[in-house]
């Protein structure tokens, strides 16, 4: 198997894991209750509501997202960011269709659906495009600036252009911490545009969101007050094992109404008492996943979680400095959290060859990616392992240097020949 929790695993993104999360997962397996309605297991629903409020408070989310505000907002644990984004997209579609049909009485669903268009940046996760493929809705990917960030004026121009062509813009995904390079869209400006144009604004912070529990990184979340929905995955960078994606919706009443059905065999369940999480997602049955969050939060405490995040960020900076101090390499983007995008100053082929040497040695794992807006090949170094230490970073850097020496020496020999 591939050891995702090895301190020398630097591919993809972290897969959260820790002893209390594993215990909670086992207990969830033991209890085996399937919380589709509140009555099916009240503790499952109640704990989930409390955990989403706890995490929301750690993130200083606006009150409207929390159950405790007694407003229309609240959170849910979805199985994945992909599912959360799809649900947000579908909610936005229903909201838009019903809004348009109040004005254009003779327009059918089909006519409206054909005109709908939504936006994200070229750096957004592929799940954003996939949500369009699953739902048959049109996605338009917009170019980013030099820091791989989507800006408000680009979004505004696309909306204006599409409206002129007769399309109906309805949904925007802003990414905080892109999967490729951990870049941040300008959600403050995107949010302003969405508000002005009356579009659903969804923020995907699957990986980076965990860092916002630290006050020094909370500024990255500024603009979340414009969002209609927001997600982060504790299963990525908050020590909770897969699967666990936290999603908040500001107006849950209206967002979920189109998907709410109560079959006859649930009639006796006390529907009115509280909410029924089956209406929030695709599946009917769901695991008791909030136990994992509860155990992790209680075991580490907010301070323990902050310490974990800070350690990963500081290790990423250690790696960044090693790369920057070697003239043969370049770092492509200032490092903000735990992802370092770098490359050999050389051809794409050389970089590919170096990566292949590194991975074939089998001591560390690294992956490449491509920044779509610049058609640029990059190597991603991610601090993943829960127990990664400085010496692992140094070890990994030596592995990279070994491969670089090999590639560059063989090039020099070729040149001499
Ligand atoms: C990992 C990731 C996703 C996909 O997560 P799943 O939970 O596997 O669907 C979506 N968006 C971003 C930004 C990610 O990093």
TrEMBL record:
Cofactors required: pyridoxal 5'-phosphate
Enzyme class: lyase
UniProt entry tagged with the keyword Cytoplasm: no
Keyword rRNA processing: no
Keywords on record: Catecholamine biosynthesis, Decarboxylase, Lyase, Pyridoxal phosphate
Enzyme Commission no: 4.1.1.28
Record-stated family: Belongs to the group II decarboxylase family.
PANTHER family for this protein: AROMATIC-L-AMINO-ACID DECARBOXYLASE, GROUP II PYRIDOXAL-5-PHOSPHATE DECARBOXYLASE
Quaternary structure, from the entry: Homodimer.
Name of the protein: Aromatic-L-amino-acid decarboxylase
Organism: Limulus polyphemus (Atlantic horseshoe crab)
